[in-house]
Specification:
4 helices; about 325 residues; alpha+beta; three-stranded antiparallel sheet; about 40% helix; seven-stranded antiparallel sheet
Length: about 325
């Protein structure tokens, strides 16, 4: 091999060796980036909180109840009192369910109120609400109607209904066995609110306020101070309320809120599915990173092998160049 050829070969090997070193650096940087990604995934895995299945104990409470002669009373809460001047040791909330006669209000959309107008006086009188005939309420004629009217007035004192003149301004109609009361003012307001004057009973845009009374089963709740006797087992044994000499023995029942427990279990099932999906995603990403790293590691080994081969060949070419130089200079001696 001539001097020029040897030097050209040496330069080519040097350039190739430089490229191999640069590619090796790039591979190492890529592996470092993959290592950082893997570390981030591991940290994300560490921060995951494993969902905890709900326990029925968390939704189970002790329910106290007693019979007061008229109702089955249940205690919903007891707050301990300290230094009460009258000697009571608990503030107790208790309740029962009872049939209560109550006045109700209902708003009727597009009531289709019909009216008649006196040709002489121009006075308007409501005649129908939809298909139901409207009549004037006559106080004192029907005890049931009077009871309903009185209850509505008591339960809706803030409305205009109780202030209306019962003899002239209260009307009613019956629908499916229920009697509805309303004021003449509200009836006329709905009747005169039709969007199209040529169709006075269609698309009335002021809802008609109606009232009725019915018996409903309602929760009746009361809050009172009480003297509560606590038994040796730590549970309340008896109770005596303020302003009463009666002492009631308390029944104890363990109650589990099945609906709340079911909701909590459904939430746990959902959270567990999300948790497992997150774990699967992290594992999949980690496996992909490991696969990429194995490929880069293999490439780095190939580059190391190539680097060694280039170094060996460069040393051999260098020796050839040294011999060529030595023989050339000997020629001129």
């Amino acid at each position: 091999m001539g001097m020029a050829a040897s030097q050209a070969r040496y330069l080519g090997l040097t350039a190739r060796k430089t490229n191999v070193e640069y590619e090796g650096q790039q591979v190492n940087q890529a592996r470092t980036a993959l290592a950082n990604q893997s570390a981030n995934l591991f940290n994300q895995l560490l921060t995951l909180e494993v969902p905890t299945a709900p326990s029925t104990a968390d939704f189970t409470t002790v329910q106290y109840s007693y019979q007061d002669g008229a109702y089955e009373e249940a205690i919903s809460s007891m707050s301990q009192l300290t230094n009460d001047p009258d000697g009571y040791n608990y503030m107790v909330t208790h309740y029962h369910f009872a049939d209560v006669f109550k006045g109700q209000r209902a708003l009727l959309a597009n009531p289709q109120v019909q009216i008649s107008t006196d040709d002489t006086t121009g006075e308007q009188t409501p005649t129908y609400v939809g298909n139901w005939e409207v009549k004037a309420y006559v106080p004192g004629a029907d005890p049931d109607l009077d009871a309903a009217y009185g209850q509505i007035c008591r339960d809706w004192p803030e409305t205009t209904f109780p202030t209306a003149d019962a003899d002239t301004e209260i009307f009613m109609y019956e629908s499916f066995g229920r009697t509805y009361f309303m004021t003449k003012e509200d009836l006329l307001a709905s009747a005169n609110s039709a969007i199209d004057p040529e169709k006075p009973i269609e698309n009335q845009n002021i809802r008609l306020t109606t009232y009725y009374a019915e018996t409903i089963n309602e929760k009746v709740e009361q809050i009172e101070r009480a003297v509560v006797e606590i038994g040796q087992d730590g549970r309340a044994a008896s109770i005596q309320y303020e302003d009463s000499s009666a002492v009631f023995a308390l029944n104890t029942e363990t109650i589990t809120d099945e609906a709340a427990y079911s909701d909590a279990m459904n939430q746990y099932t959902y959270d567990m599915a999300v948790y497992e999906k997150t774990i699967q995603d992290i594992n999949a990403k980690t496996e992909a990173i490991q696969e990429q790293d194995r490929t880069l590691e293999l490439r780095l080994r190939q580059l190391d092998t190539e680097q060694d081969a280039l170094q060996t060949e460069m040393e051999a070419v260098k020796k050839v160049i040294e011999k060529n130089v030595e023989s050339t200079f000997k020629t001129f001696e």
